[in-house]
Structures are given as C-alpha cells and as structure tokens.
Amino acid sequence: MAVYTDVSDEALEAFLSDYAIGNLVAFRGIAEGVENSNFQLRTTQGDFILTLYEKRVNAQELPWFLGLMQHLAGQGVSCPQPVASTAGQTLGTLAGRPAAITTFLPGVWPRKIRQEHCRPLGQALAQLHEAGRSYTPVRPNALGPDAWQPLLDSCRAGADAVHPGLLAELDAAFTHILPHWPGQGANPALPHGQIHADLFPDNVFFLRKTVSGLIDFYFACTDFLAYDIAICINAWCFEGDGSFNVTFGRQLVQGYESVRPLSAAERQALPVLARGAAMRFLLTRLYDWINTPPDALVTPKDPLDYLKRLRFHLATETVDGYGF
Ligand SMILES: Nc1ncnc2c1ncn2[C@@H]1O[C@H](COP(=O)(O)OP(=O)(O)O)[C@@H](O)[C@H]1O
Ligand SMILES: N[C@@H](CCOP(=O)(O)O)C(=O)O
C-alpha cells in the first residue's frame, strides 16, 4: 500500500483550516500507488485528494508539476486541479511533508486492458501534448538517457541475482539505444513539449469507453512527444506472457494521430524510443526490487516484465515490425 506518512486528526484539522473547502466529512488513506501518500478527503463541498509527497519527488519541482496540472485543466484536459488555500497557495506542509489538495476525478482505471481502451488513450495523450504547448516552463527529464547508466551502475551488485546475466544484457542493450537516441550526437531531435512520462493503465481513468481523467503527473517533464507514445506502447500493448499486441498498438497510434499526426521522423524513431522506455522502467523497477526492504509497505514491481519488452524492441528494428 502507499501511505508512507501518517496524518493525525489534529494535524489534518490545522492543515484544512487554511482552505475554504467546507467541513471534513471523511478521510481515508488510499492503498494504490507507489510513489506518494494519497488520501481521499470528503468535505461538505465534495471529494478531494490530499497528496503528501515522498522520496522521489523533489520539493523544489512541485510548483512546476502543480502549474502543469493547473494549465492542462485550464486547457480542457481532465486532470487533477490543485486547490488553492485561502492565502492563494497550492502547496503546503503536513506531517513534515510537502502536501497539496487536488480535485477528485471520477472513473476507474482498467484492470484488464482491452482494444477499446487504446484508441481513446492515444487521443487523450495527443490532447495532453497539444494542451501542454502553451505551458512554457521547462523540466528536463530526470529519468532520461543520461540517468540510465548511473541507475544501472547503482544496481551492479544485485542485478544478476535478480536474473542471471542481466547486467551484461543491459550493458549490451545500451549500445543499441544510446547512439541512436534522437538529439544525441548528429541524430536530429524530434518535436518536444510537456509529456506525462508515466501514463500507465493505473493513471488513466475511464467511464465506460471514455477517458474520464489522467492522474499522477509527478514524472511529467519536457521531452520528445513521441517518447510518451513509446511509454504507452510498453505499458498498454503487451500481453501477460510478454508478447506484443499489434491491435492495441495500432489503435493507440491511430487514436493519437487522429488528434496530432506524427512526422515521418517521429514514426521512424518509435522503435528506439520504445527500447529506451522499456530500459527506463526496467531500471527503476530493478533499483526498487533490489533496494526495497522485505518488510516495506510497498510491493516492488517486477523488472523482468520490462526485460521481455526490451528484448522484443531490440529484435524489432523498424516501425513496420510493430504493424502501425
Ligand atoms: N485526482 C484523483 N482523483 C481520484 N482518485 C485519485 C486521484 N489521484 C489519485 N487518486 C487515487 O490514488 C491512487 C494513487 O494515485 P497515484 O497518483 O497513482 O499515486 P502514486 O504517485 O503514489 O503512484 C490512484 O490509483 C487513485 O485511486
Ligand atoms: N509506472 C511505474 C511505477 C510508477 O508507479 P505509479 O503508481 O506512480 O504510476 C512502473 O510501472 O514501473
């Protein structure tokens, strides 16, 4: 579960006294999520989410994330909207942690991904990219290619115990990713802007067949827009046995392109971006797998799911191999 920090009744009451959101009716910790502590807050004015920011979030970057959500919501994207205190602040401190209240979004995330989720997902992603164009502050991707080698280095001692030969396999995989990465060396860059960078199924709410909300913007950053598609291909378009679902991938890309057509360069770059996305999630999962104590509240996610994806991308040299 993901409630790392306890909030006492007294501390909550003092925190809420700075907001004009009605009187507290109910308050409960939310078990889902792995990064931050989230609580559902019900007041006489409705439902809200209270988030206490934990280890991976740099407090100095919170105004960028909250500003992005505010901006996207203003552009019509259904995402959590930060609620300002009576003093006009969207960021406060609770139980010694940076904390914010955001609006509650209706809907549920798909526990089993079906074809009909993928086209609306692609559309929602492209709408997010279009809406982000007018948000000008830049946040470099802290988990981009420059971070991968140091992350793997920090896992050197434990990697092969997770899977024999993993270290050598990942070292070799870098040579098929980094020299080919857009913007590196002589490789041309791609259109860039604000990306979500973690749009996994548990961050996309649906009501029937429609996307009702996107959440969890705390990995969002300024990077290649097509990299966000590559992340979604990894997160949404593989079966439990590690095989790629061509239909899901096609629906995702077609949905995206119905809002924002891809350039030829972006399409051609999808295979290397997909390799990079698989590497990025493999590495953070590997780090968490090795470093999470057995008695921790959170169950780390399996890094080897992403090894299967990475192998598929390494064996698929051109975008035609994906059937898009
Ligand atoms: N704005 C929101 N509206 C409704 N539920 C939310 C909202 N934000 C978070 N949640 C709930 O909290 C859970 C964890 O949120 P998430 O942002 O994914 O946490 P973490 O950053 O810790 O991974 C979600 O799966 C969802 O149930
Ligand atoms: N999506 C990442 C982990 C981040 O978890 P989230 O709950 O913040 O989406 C992964 O699956 O490795």
UniProtKB/TrEMBL annotation:
<keyword id="KW-0418">Kinase</keyword>
<keyword id="KW-0791">Threonine biosynthesis</keyword>
<feature type="domain" description="Aminoglycoside phosphotransferase">
    <location>
        <begin position="27"/>
        <end position="262"/>
    </location>
</feature>
<dbReference type="InterPro" id="IPR005280">
    <property type="entry name" value="Homoserine_kinase_II"/>
</dbReference>
<dbReference type="InterPro" id="IPR050249">
    <property type="entry name" value="Pseudomonas-type_ThrB"/>
</dbReference>
<dbReference type="InterPro" id="IPR011009">
    <property type="entry name" value="Kinase-like_dom_sf"/>
</dbReference>
<dbReference type="InterPro" id="IPR002575">
    <property type="entry name" value="Aminoglycoside_PTrfase"/>
</dbReference>
<dbReference type="GO" id="GO:0004413">
    <property type="term" value="F:homoserine kinase activity"/>
</dbReference>
<protein>
    <recommendedName>
        <fullName>Homoserine kinase</fullName>
        <ecNumber>2.7.1.39</ecNumber>
    </recommendedName>
</protein>
<keyword id="KW-0028">Amino-acid biosynthesis</keyword>
<dbReference type="Pfam" id="PF01636">
    <property type="entry name" value="APH"/>
</dbReference>
<keyword id="KW-0547">Nucleotide-binding</keyword>
<comment type="similarity">
    <text>Belongs to the pseudomonas-type ThrB family.</text>
</comment>
<comment type="pathway">
    <text>Amino-acid biosynthesis; L-threonine biosynthesis; L-threonine from L-aspartate: step 4/5.</text>
</comment>
<keyword id="KW-0808">Transferase</keyword>
<keyword id="KW-0067">ATP-binding</keyword>
